[in-house]
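Aggregate trends can hide what the representation actually does to any particular protein. In the encoding step, the backbone of a single protein was reduced to a row of integers, each denoting a local shape. The record that follows shows the chain in one-letter code together with its fold in token form.

***
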Amino acid sequence: MAPNPNFAFTVTATDRATLARLGRIETPHGAVETPAFLFCATKAAVKAATPAQAEAAGTQAILANTYHLMLQPGAETVARLGGLHRFMGWDRPLMTDSGGFQIFSLGEAADEDENGRAALVRVTEEGARFRSHLDGSAHLLTPERSIEIQRLLGADLVVALDECPPSRLSREDTARSLALTHRWAKRSLEAFASGDDGRQALYGVTQGGVYPELRRDSAETISGLPFFGHAIGGCLPAQAEDVALYEVFAMAVEGLDRARPVHLLGIGGVRDIWEGVAVGADTFDCVHPTRIARHGGALTRAAKGFRINLRNARFREDAAPIEEGCDCEACRRFSRGYLHHLVKAGEITGLTLLALHNIRFMNRLMATVRASIAAGRFAAEMRAWCG
């Protein structure tokens, strides 16, 4: 594909001790200063926060979910209503995933969902056949259809369809899956190029599980194709304490074309962010910040694991803010004790305040990461946060 004048990625500074870097992704809806975190608007809404609130908290870009939006309200409906930006009232950079992760995760679920419907997925060369978790209707998602859906949605940054196998799949099965992902990547590029109008840029996905040689092969293969950016995929080891997670980060980035932006799909833990940036990742997305807010969880640097649970009785008479020095509305105006009361009472206001705090926390974290790279002290700041 020819270079797209509406999109660009520029590296503006690099860290001497690590692969961390400052960058800037230009899109038709503005720029993203990287490293950056993209908040998940799974169903075209960031949970418990309006677009204006998310932007006021420093959010640069968000990611919407192709799987959920293709099922409800439907990509064609979104297109008729002006595209995803207008539909959800967000006029800044927007990314959509391919829909693959959600579909393939169904295959690892129970044979039936809570309504007794089949939830299995069948993958062929053509694509993935699955049943909707909403009404049991049958669907086929191919690389071409994924691109078509994302074009109808109209996000700035879109992602090629890949197969997302379990992280502990055998090497032989992982290699077989990886070959399919690479064939789908080429089909995605062809489908994208056939309708490219300059308003979108395509990321290719690397896979390879926990196998270094497969990760290197995938990095080289995807780097050899004319994608705008790289997205690192896969069901990575779940526990942040497991050093294998960070080994996978490093092996996944090795061999990628460093002139392109690198997105780590589904990664959003605080230490995970530092470790990902250290090996060269530029952007991240995850439901973690807003998901834990709905269960009383608040992010704070001082706590073990960087979070506290305000449902716990020990916060009942705690007069302190969630985090000293935080400038979000929850911390400026309310105590942990009050937020504990709201959460225990089931007040929606409490969930909103926790979501806004967590959004602001993540944006402040990314600003700290960027500042540390600019000042030449990224490694020292990472040690201060993560030990």
